[in-house]
């Protein structure tokens, strides 16, 4: 500090101090830089507030639609002018639309104008991957199914390259077949039966024999379209399909996927509990044996999946159709009864362990194999009731989302739900490709062009 003051004193009395003169521009440059940073910070804050209001408006319209501008302003605690600006942006982005009330519905004067989500303003692709089939769907912003295509998976499914190419081809077919504008496709959701990290990399998918596969990047390369790609675990996709995510529900919910294997998502406050590595809920790897050598073969996923039922299915049907037909048989034969009894015992032990560990308020079963659960539900609940730890209450167990395309629709839903995420939540377990903006960030960039 003393040297800095001496420099200025020397300059004041006419002493030839070049060092002092050199520092003056540095000081001015520093002040200018700080002012620029402050302006940019203020701009970012303004844009953030704007984006938050727009996202809140979308969330409100998803929950209660259509609404008048006055209703929206009141519900969001905004002035009518601010609410009007927010709505104008959403209308321009085609994410919202205006609806005119019929004359008889209007109380006085001209018919009222209400605002609702625009179902045709955005479209989402969902692809569910198994070792045998790829199920693809295209849904609109309202979640309505527009197209569905099921194709066999590559026989060489262990090689992720051909699978990625098939996924890319399927995505294009879904869009072209529905005749929608490719510019309004907001992204592709891919669900995989395995462990997926926060960057969308499939760390382990035993049924596909994949390890550390960046399937999202492979699909993006094959697709060649600027669509964001989100890769998620199939149980997370199921949770999205049944509406368990991004809700105000505070109860602890356990979503169990019964399919080729067994997976789960632990839902707390409408969010997936990920664990320290993002791998929580991998119940399929739960070992149902006291022998260490059985750790890779006697698991809930292998014993509780649809493998034991395959010999009872027709080769002329998809596995989901075959399982649905088994569930509809009024008088099952001995082979089916025996298989159901064995499966019920496995599910009973697995669910009993989960209740003791997680103590959920409710359990929801989904996936193609869940269609058979009603046939064994009484047996399973009897086992649970007889062995439940004293003091615990048996949580209700229900079946939801057992249709063949449920998980694929949920995969599309995970991308759609990204539009409704508030900024502070955008980066939590988004599963997007590195370097790609989150879905909400992409929408925000569109909004911020004013």
From TrEMBL:
Record Gene3D superfamilies: 3.30.420.40, Winged helix-like DNA-binding domain superfamily/Winged helix DNA-binding domain
Signal peptide span: none
InterPro entries: ATPase_NBD, ROK, ROK_cs, WH-like_DNA-bd_sf, WH_DNA-bd_sf
Stored Pfam families: ROK (PF00480)
Family: Belongs to the ROK (NagC/XylR) family.
Name of the protein this chain belongs to: ROK family transcriptional regulator
Organism: Mesorhizobium jarvisii
């Amino acid at each position: 500090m003393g040297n800095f003051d001496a420099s200025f004193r020397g300059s004041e009395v006419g002493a030839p101090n070049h060092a002092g003169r050199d520092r003056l521009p540095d000081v001015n440059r520093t002040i200018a830089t700080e002012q620029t940073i402050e302006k940019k910070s203020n701009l970012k804050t303004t844009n953030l507030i704007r984006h938050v209001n727009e996202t809140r408006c979308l969330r409100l319209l998803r929950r209660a639609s259509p609404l008048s501008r006055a209703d929206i302003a009141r519900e969001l605690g905004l002035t009518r002018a601010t609410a009007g600006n927010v709505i104008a942006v959403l209308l321009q982005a085609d994410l919202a639309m205006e609806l005119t009330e019929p004359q008889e519905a209007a109380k006085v004067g001209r018919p009222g104008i209400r605002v609702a989500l625009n179902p045709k303003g955005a479209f989402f692709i969902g692809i569910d991957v198994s070792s045998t089939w790829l199920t693809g769907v295209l849904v609109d912003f309202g979640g309505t199914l527009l197209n569905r295509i099921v194709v066999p998976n590559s026989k060489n499914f262990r090689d992720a390259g051909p699978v990625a190419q098939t996924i890319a081809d399927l995505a294009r077919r879904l869009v072209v077949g529905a005749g929608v504008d490719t510019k309004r496709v907001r992204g592709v959701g891919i669900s995989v039966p395995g462990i997926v990290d926060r960057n969308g990399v499939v760390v382990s998918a035993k049924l596909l024999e994949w390890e550390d596969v960046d399937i999202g990047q492979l699909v993006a390369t094959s697709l060649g379209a600027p669509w964001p790609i989100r890769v998620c675990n199939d149980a997370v996709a199921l949770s999205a399909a049944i509406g368990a995510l991004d809700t105000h529900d505070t109860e602890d919910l356990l979503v169990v996927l019964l399919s080729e294997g067994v997976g789960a998502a632990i839902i707390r406050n409408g969010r997936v509990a990920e664990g320290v590595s993002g791998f929580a809920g991998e119940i399929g790897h739960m070992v149902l044996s006291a022998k260490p050598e059985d750790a890779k073969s006697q698991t809930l996923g292998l014993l509780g999946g649809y493998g034991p039922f395959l010999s009872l299915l027709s080769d002329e049907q998809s596995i989901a159709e075959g399982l649905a037909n088994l569930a509809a048989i009024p008088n099952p034969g001995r082979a089916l009864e025996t298989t159901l009894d064995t499966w019920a015992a496995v599910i009973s032990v697995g669910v009993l362990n989960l209740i003791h560990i997680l103590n959920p308020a409710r359990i929801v079963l989904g996936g193609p194999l869940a269609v058979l659960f009603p046939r064994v539900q009484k047996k399973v609940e009897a086992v649970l009731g007889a062995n439940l730890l004293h003091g615990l209450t048996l949580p209700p167990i229900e079946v939801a989302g057992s249709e063949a395309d449920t998980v694929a629709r949920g995969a599309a839903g995970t991308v759609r739900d990204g539009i409704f995420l508030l900024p502070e939540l955008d980066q939590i377990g988004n599963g997007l490709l590195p370097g790609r903006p989150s879905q909400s960030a992409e929408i925000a960039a569109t909004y911020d062009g004013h």
